[in-house]
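Memo to structure team: turn this sequence into structure tokens by end of day. - J.P.
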Amino acid sequence: MRRRIGVTGLVVAAVVVLLVGPPLLFLGDRYAVADEHHDTASRVRAALLFAALLAVTAVVVALLVTALIRRLLAPLDSLAADASRLAGGDLGPAGRRYGIEECDRLAEALDSAAVRLGELVRRERQLAADVSHQLRSRLTALSMRLEEVAAVSDPAVKAEAEAALDQVDRMVRIVDELLDQARTERAHNAVELDVADQLDTLRTEWSDAFRAGGREMAVTTNPGLRALATPGHVGQALGVLVENALQHGAGTVSVSARPHGEHVVVEVRDEGAGVPDPLVPVVFDRGVSGADGTGLGLALARALIEADSGRLELRSAHPAVFAVYLPRIS
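Reply from structure team:
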């Protein structure tokens, strides 16, 4: 890719030399002839001058073309990396846009596919967790009944009951493994996250937008609060919530973090009218939007949080309060 960019720049420079060179050399020759002392030295100086001008023009054009090509190809490299990441099983939407209409449409399609795939995987894992939990309960009850049977005095019955207990214990271990996998498989990219630092970064990123809109953003948190999460996922998800509060809400936007049992809860609220009642049951569905938007924002935010074994909820509709739950590190 980089070699093709360089070759393209050189080709464009050569074309510029072929197109612009003859007129410049002709003008140089006329300049030398028109000179009052048009001797050989003056003609050489004029030719060198215009040759240097031609070379500088070619270099400038080549650099400009190379920069333009790089500007066009950089989003393609990023989109290819996102597609490879998606194919590799990382179902977190990237959320990047490039200011180029075609590339932005492709990025939106990749994000939408990531959200759909993430939702399918989430449902499959939730089903596995629910089924495993139900099996675990039934197997526990069966094990208790078999223990009662094994307590009888008949040796044959006792031996059969103990053999059945062994099989039940083996099945319980398998079910426990399924439960552990359903709980932990999604958070393979999560790291220890300083929540206060994350919220400080969020405030810095959005300070200009709030200042331009004549609004305020208040951030409060407990020092030393830590969560197990992917910083990029949390940052993008909170960015979606803050952007929605800025665009569709009113008054001060408050972002707060606090411990809540085994989780860290980050709440984003504003002082506006809140979420319209018809949208409350489907506010996280893909394609649902209360304004002129794609309806991908909240669906994307939920997919990002759930990729780290967290959850995103609408705590209150009037006023709007969204809560992000992240696994807490004590």
